[in-house]
Amino acid sequence: LPSSLRRLISVNILLTLKKKKLEFEIIIFRAKLFSDFEMEKSYDDDDSSFPHPGGGDGGLSSPFFLDHAGEVLLSRNQDGLSWKFLDSSDCEGTTCLGIINSEDCKTEIKFSDIYAVEFANYGLVHSPKSGLRHAKECFRERLLHTQEMYRFTVHGFQSSPKEPCLWKLAAFTFGHMDLQTCQSWMDQLNYSLIKEVDRPRNLLVFVHPRSGKGNGSKVWETVSKIFIRAKVNTKVIVTERAGHAFDVMTSIQNKELHSYDGIIAVGGDGFFNEIINGYLLSRLKVPLPPSPSDIFNSVQSRGSSSVQEQGDAVHGTDQKEHYPLLPDSVQEVMNFRTVNGSCEGIEDPNHPFSGGRPRFGLIPAGSTDAIVICTTGARDPVTSALHIILGRKIFLDAMQVVRWKTASTSTIEPFIRYAASFAGYGFYGDVISESEKYRWMGPKRYDYVGTKIFLKHRSYEAEVMFEEADPDNGKATTHTRSKTWPFRNTTRPEKIPCRAKCSICNSKAEDENIIRTTPISYPEKTRWCRTKGRFLSIGAAVMSNRNERAPDGLVVDAHLSDGFLHLILIKDCSRPKYLWHLTELAKRGGEPLNFEFVEYHKTRAFTFTSIGEESVWNLDGEIFEAHHLSAQVLRGLIPLFASGPEI
Prior knowledge:
Elements: H1 3-45, E1 60-66, E2 70-76, E3 80-85, E4 95-96, E5 99-100, E6 106-110, E7 114-124, H2 135-146, E8 148-159, E9 167-176, H3 179-194, E10 202-207, H4 216-229, E11 233-238, H5 244-251, H6 254-257, E12 262-267, H7 269-280, H8 292-302, E13 319-323, E14 359-364, H9 370-376, H10 381-389, E15 394-405, E16 415-419, E17 422-426, H11 427-435, H12 444-456, E18 460-468, E19 482-484, E20 491-493, H13 503-506, E21 527-541, E22 565-571, H14 575-585, E23 598-603, E24 605-610, E25 616-619, E26 622-625, E27 628-640
Parallel strand pairs: 10-11, 10-12, 12-14
Antiparallel strand pairs: 1-2, 1-9, 2-3, 3-6, 4-5, 7-8, 8-9, 13-21, 15-16, 15-27, 17-21, 17-25, 18-21, 18-24, 19-20, 21-22, 22-23, 24-27, 25-26
C-alpha cells in the first residue's frame, strides 16, 4: 500500500482505540457511581451504621458482580450469604446457575453448605448467559465480557430438584473493582467457616484399589481435589492385600488415632466392614450375647415348658417356642473379650471405649454400596465426600456376631466380628461363597452366581432363637395406623422409612444407654422365641440395605439407629414361590415379607444353630463360617459422616 494510505489507516486505528478506551472509562465511572448510590441507599434504609468487614456476626452488605448472573447486592448474616439482583433486567429472562430468576429473586447459601472460599485472582466477570432484549443490556453484556475485576469464589453444593439426596458442586464467583473489599469479605467468610463445628481437618483415608469394578483409586483421585480445596489434610493408605486395612487399624496406637478427625474408606461395604472390625475388635469391650447352649441350659434349669405357636408354621416339623427372660445369673458367665482372646473386666461399662470414638466415612466404590445409599440416599462419591468435609454426623447401629463353633464337632471357642449392615445364611451365604470364584467378573458375578444358587434351590435345617420385641414398647413398633396385608391374616404398622433428622433414631431409650453394654438385662416382660425347621435363607438386617437391585431394601422401614435387628426367615417352599418373593424384593413398593413362608421379627438379639454340617454366613459381603452363632445389636455404636437420606 502507498505510505499515505498506511498512515491514514494507522490514524483511524488509533482514534478507534482511544474512543473505545474512553467508552470503557465512562462505563467504569458509571458503575462506581451506581455502586456508591446503592451503598448509600442501603445505608439510608437502615438506621444503624453500615457494618464493615471484621465487625463480628452482624449484617454486612456490598454490591458485587456475580459471574454469569449480573449485578447483585451481597449480604452476610449469621446463617450464611444471600444476594439480590439490583437491576430487574438481570432477573427477567435470565438464568443463574440453572435457576430462573424473577424480578424480586433472592438466592442464598448457608455457611453449613459452604466448604471453601478462595481468591480467584484478577480476571474476567461474565454477563448472564441468556440473550438480553434491550440495546442497553446488550452494550453492558459486551462490556462485562471484557471487564476484569478482583474476584473470590464461594464453593458449596446444590441439591438436585428431582433427586434431593444427590449433591452437585456449585461455585459462586463474585467480582469487585476494589481488592481490599474482596479480601475483607474473604476474611469474614473464612472466619465464619472456622466456627462451623465438627468439620474435619485431618483424615486417615484407606483406598481399596480393586474394589467393585477396580476403580477405587480413580474414585479417590476424583474426590481428593475437593478435600484439597477445603484444606482438609489426608493421609492416604492404598491397600496392597486382603486384610491390610484391618491390620493397620488393629495395630495403630490410640495417640496417633486421636490425631485424626475421622477414618475414611474408599471402597465397598466389605471394605468398610474390615476397617470397622479392625478398630472395634482391639478396643471395644462389652459383654458377649448368650450362646445357644446358654439359653437352653437356662431354660432347663428353670423348668420352663415349651409352648407351640400356631398360624405361621408351613411345615409340621417347624416349631416355635417361647421362653421367659433369662435369669441374671447367666450374666456371670459372660466375659469381656478382646481381639487377642483375653477376658478382663471394665471399670465403667457405660463408656466401653478408652478415649473418644472417631467418626467413620465411606466413599462408594464397591459392588452394591448399600451402606452409602442408606446413609446419604445417593450412590455418588462427590455427595459422600461433601458429607465428610461438611462434618455431617449420624450414628449407626452395629451387630456384634459371635461364632461359638465352626463345625458341629468343634470345641466352643468364641470368635467375634461386627457387621454394620447385614448378616445372611443359606442363599446369602452360598452366593458370597460361590462368587469368590468369579471375582474377575466384577459386580456382575452376583447376578450370575445368584441365578445358579436359585436354580439349585437348597434348603438348610437350623434352629433359631430370638428375643421377642415388646409390641407395647414405643421403640419396637411405630404408633401409626395399621393396615392389613392382602395375603396374610396379620397386621403390620404402616411403613415409615428412615430419613434425615429421623425422630426414631434421635430418640434415646429410657431404660438403656446409647451403647447397649448389658445385652441380656432386658425388661422382665421380654420373651425368647424358638423356631426350628428347614430354611432357604436367614437374614439379619441392621438397616434397610437399599441398593440398585432392591430399591426399598430388605426391610423398607428399618432405621439406622433404633437399637433393633430385623430377622427374616425364609422357610423351605417351592421355587416359584421363592421367585415371587425375590421379584417383590427387586421392585419399588413391593411386599417381600407378605408371604406365608416368610417370618419377620424385630429383635435385639438372636442365636443360630445349624443342624447339618455346612454353615456359611455372609457378613457385610465377607465369608463367615459359623455352626453355632449368636448376635446382638449395639445401638448407635458407629459415628458416621452422613446426614441420612433426604425426603
